[in-house]
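Entry 14. Two folds queued back to back today. First construct below, sequence then structure tokens.
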Amino acid sequence: MGGAGGVVVVTGAGGMGAAVARRIGTGSTLVLADVDDRLLEDGVRALAASGYDVVGHALDVSRADSVGVLAADAADRGPVVAVVHTAGLSPVQAPVAAILRVDLVGTALMLDAFGEVIAPGGAGVFVSSMAGTMAPPDPALDRKLATTPTAQLLGLPELAPDVLVDPASAYVVAKRANQVRVQARVNTISPGVIATPMGASELEGPNGAVMQAMLTGSGSGRIGTPGDIAGVVDFLLGRDAGYITGTDLLVDGGVVASLQAPVP
């Protein structure tokens, strides 16, 4: 059975996931899941050495069977009181097809599976991105991304290979889907540039100079940290946020605001 605090599930064992697990996992049975066996093993070992009641679980979020096994295993350990989904790919890490499978379909599968096992009063936070916030307005596409059954998502004509021709475009659509799909169910957060291995890859990639300029021009003027994200997740899972549902919280240090209304 789970610890006194129930069962907490965190997907993604590195960067934001590790920081979130440390922030919210105390007093609970913590289930940490990742597709990378070595990263998962290291994460579980570090948490266990710090006194956490933690178990590791191999997970491929792009596969319904893998996500289903994770949800069932978590529920078998006790009441699932919190689910935090941080796992994902960035445009410099993967091609279009993989981004759609992991970032778009993976989020939908996690919503489906854990919607069936979450305990009464439980809460979820799914990590999107400020990229979704900057997507061109398209109410018709938003509706499709929000309501299309998971098994049919990749069949949407707007996601066809001749439409989404580069990873950056696929990432924007996938993260917009994350934001609109959770509405009326759980909350999302949309981080900006965060000091994780994924964030470092983006800063070193083709658009790194543009991203650095956005950071410099933002209200905070700095890169975000995994701790910044963990603190927001902790708030959204806590009692003070008990009346917040279906909301996307932009956690980008002011990047989007500075782009929409630049200071003269």
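Second construct, same run, same settings:
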Amino acid sequence: MTDVIVLIGAGSLGQAIARRVGVGKKVVIADLRPENAETAGKILSDAGFDVTVARVNVSERASVEALVDVAVGLGNVTGMIQAAGVSPSQAPIETILNVDLYGTALLLDQFGAVIAPGGSGVVISSQSGHRLGALPEDQTRALAVTPVEELLALPFLRPEAVKDTLHAYQLSKRANVLRVAAEAVRWGRRGARINSISPGIIITPLANDELSGPRGDGYRQMIASSVAKRAGTPDEVANAAALLMGTDGTFITGSDLLIDGGTTATFWFGDTI
């Protein structure tokens, strides 16, 4: 039976990963906007990949379930790439929590139920989750293990309890990492692995929106003060994703890989060394 890789989020970062792990497999590209999925699908099809496109709204259970049905109908689901999301400058608090936090938890839950033995997945989180201070132990555990449909009812995730869109984003990305760690246990029972990647500033259309938006000066300062003194590229993240999803990474699961050119190291320790 054909191996199937599912890419959720048709942007340049997800496409770069799909190119690295989708050779010889059927690639499903799903996005909220059908035109984005079609455009990415044509790019990969023209490069020799076997592509099926679909629409998905990760914040709607029925839509995610329909995507799972499409993938299962094509073969053995051996890979999932969750690269969908919105940034603090693109959406209000409620949308960020619904897409970046709830949507990722829902995808992990649904694809974790069908992932094939030997399969693997990667969730694109963010360095931003590493810039959030330590949470109380009860909140940390709640983000990791609360049933999906109860997540957004947690008191500290109610929109009125979240300070601003950046806080919503940081909470969501911290939740992604914690959720992956917990889900790795369940995926492991199926003989599969799941990890997350927390990129720093990677030059994509989303990053360019941030650089030209109200937080642009802050982003440029992060780049200038980082160890690497530059932004990253989608291919650099894809290299790491290929390791995590491939045969060289079979001892890695439930982990988060921070790829940010030392930006987080500077944030926490730059003034002390």
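Quick look at the second one. The chain has a mean pLDDT of 95. The beta strands are 3-8, 26-31, 50-55, 76-82, 120-124, 193-199, 256-259.
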